[in-house]
Amino acid sequence: MKPVRPFAAALGVLACFASSAALAQALTPAQTAAIDRIVTSTLADTGVPSASIAVVQGGRIVYAKAYGKQSDVIPVARTDVPYQIASISKQFTAAAILLLQDQGKLGLDDTVSKYVPGITDGDKITIRQLLSHTSGLQDYWPQDYSFAAMEHPVTPQQIVDRWAKKPLDFQPGTQWQYSNTGYVVAGMIVEKASGMKLLDFLDKYIFQPLDMHPINQDLAIGRGFPTPYQRFALGPVRPEKPAAPGWLFAAGELAMTPSDLAKWDIARIDRAVLSAADWQAQETPVKLTDGKDTGYGLGVEVGTTKVGNVPYVEHNGEAVGFLSENVVYPQQKDAVVVLTNSDFSNAVFTMTKGISGVILPQLAAAPDAAETAHTAAARKLFDQLRTGHLDRALLTDDANYYFTPTALGDYQSSLSKLGQPTSFEPTGGPRLRGGFVNRNYKVTYPDETLEIVTYAEPGADGRYEQFLVMPAS
């Protein structure tokens, strides 16, 4: 339900938004063929069951297509099937706050305590800091898997009581650290200030005007919706049990089609629904108290590509069994939406970057920064998973909950047959998240490349909260 990796670091049915002739004229046959190759090859390489995409060019939807297996009861992938978009929802929560400010019902620099009592240092934290991940509130879901408590329904207040009343991770405004908790609080503020349920407010002021039809992701489960899938290392792709209701409130509450999300992207490009000032406020990177630019506005990441110097507005998301990516290139009036029904591999980022390169040839993938610390410890645990002899003292309680006998068996059986890797190297620097330190690694074999996403307790001997192995693409 969060960005797994920053964007700048990664046989279906055409949608009926215009006539087939209009769609065919928008992209050249070579471009559509290239997009199809990118998506189909990435799905084949990673084992991700399905993807549904939308492409905006020149401020209009020019291509929409779904690929692969959405579920056992959807025989042909369809573009009208909604996927859970998880943290991409955050920009809608932020937009609700901006609209309420326009209505005179709150201010971005109001303190949290004015609306939600009992939060640690709520008289110091502002709404702007909630939306920009600079509040200091500890993230309640830094893991890339569903932890034990998520088997049970939860309310926003229960999330606040467990996580937002802890000591702050840092003083408000002094650091940037992704926090789903902050967005739960922001959603509660929307409801308090508006007197409406969050989704009702969004429907009235954003979705209806844009002819969008999202639903609560808690309801996007079962027949007619994509099945969520997981994979333990290189084991079989397995259906994944959804989280219980309530865990994604305001931080990742929406399910929608790629084309609905593309309509929102077009509104961003056209400065529609929100005022131009509100769009600018959302897309302006927030600065820390020391003047450092966070690269994050209000619910969106903003930056410029390393290759081509193209400005972008981006966010990705992860729900249980779903990964999603949405990037807008405002100056070019282009956008790419890629939604998948798996929470393993970096396929969603590979597809987004590849499709972006088709419509904007000046773009190319930028190399990730190297990260050297803790690689030996990560390699040690990886080798244990290959052999099936796991030292559980290296893991937290939540990580031990994740590594069930089934999970450990899939890890051992799928990894051991690959033999010894030819390289094991970090792919990104450490970053704080939910009280843990995130580090990622790439493992290379002659015929296979793997990705490892880890979270560990701070310090030299910090236990692993997460150690996920997945195919790279």
Layout of strands and helices, then pairs:
Blueprint: H1 20-26, H2 29-46, E1 50-57, E2 60-68, E3 83-84, H3 90-102, H4 127-131, H5 156-163, H6 180-194, H7 198-207, E4 215-216, E5 229-231, E6 237-239, E7 254-256, H8 258-270, H9 276-283, E8 301-304, E9 311-319, E10 322-329, E11 334-340, H10 347-359, H11 375-387, H12 397-402, H13 405-416, E12 423-426, E13 431-433, E14 436-445, E15 448-456, E16 464-471
Antiparallel strand pairs: 1-2, 1-11, 3-7, 4-7, 5-6, 8-9, 9-10, 10-11, 12-14, 13-14, 14-15, 15-16
Structural account:
The chain folds into 2 domains: 1-367, Beta-lactamase (3-Layer(aba) Sandwich), CATH 3.40.710.10; 375-471, Nuclear Transport Factor 2, Chain: A (Roll). The chain has 13 helices and 16 strands. It has helices at 20-26, 29-46, 90-102, 127-131, 156-163, 180-194, 198-207, 258-270, 276-283, 347-359, 375-387, 397-402, 405-416; strands spanning 50-57, 60-68, 83-84, 215-216, 229-231, 237-239, 254-256, 301-304, 311-319, 322-329, 334-340, 423-426, 431-433, 436-445, 448-456, 464-471. The strands form 4 sheets. The chain has a 6-stranded antiparallel sheet, sandwiched between helices. Strands 12, 13, 14, 15 and 16 form a 5-stranded antiparallel sheet that branches. β1 and β2 (60-68) form a beta hairpin. The longest helix is centred in the first third of the chain and has 18 residues, at 29-46. The protein is globular and about 65 Å long.
